[in-house]
């Protein structure tokens, strides 16, 4: 239970809670429970235990593959409502988290936190092999593949192997000539997101998708689709 943890441990968790963005006392207490509460809810598959039933339920969806929360714009599905909420911002363009130093904005608090490290120069994660430092734990994990010399991602057509999955996907498009990135303005197709982004600059000053009810104009059909819901209320 929470009462059983040491004062030093509680202080450490409180500091980390504030860094994570929990600012109210109730939020910090709830976060403390996740560390020191009684983990009575167990996963039936891997027996991992959780303090809160809600967290156990979310974890179980990893095993079942269940993704009950669907995006109304692109129909992409997510395990949690929070995941869907963050994804929706890619359609609306909402970036509620702002850097106080350069005023650059981000969709999630996590992205903002990583960005802030670019101002401080801090790289808290270190490679155990070469002592190279990184801003995120993900970057370290990705970097470690370099030391293993493993190339686990193989091309389905020529058996060429790659260290990273993204590189393998880009390579396979050379065989299929499959262009999956579409320009929503002129319907032109591209092999990579970078090519599409470069092309999109040509349309920056033009807005082609217009609401037939109020004549409001939008740059993307997804934005127009969301807007039409206003008239249906």
Automatic annotation (TrEMBL):
The keyword Transmembrane does not apply. Residues 41-68, 69-96, 97-124, 125-152, 153-180, 181-203, 209-233 form the C2H2-type domain. Signal peptide: none annotated. It comes from the Eukaryota. Coiled coil: none annotated. The keyword Metal-binding applies. Keywords: Metal-binding, Repeat, Zinc, Zinc-finger. InterPro entries: Znf_C2H2_sf (IPR036236), Znf_C2H2_type (IPR013087). GO terms for molecular function: zinc ion binding. This is ZF(C2H2)-13 zinc finger protein.
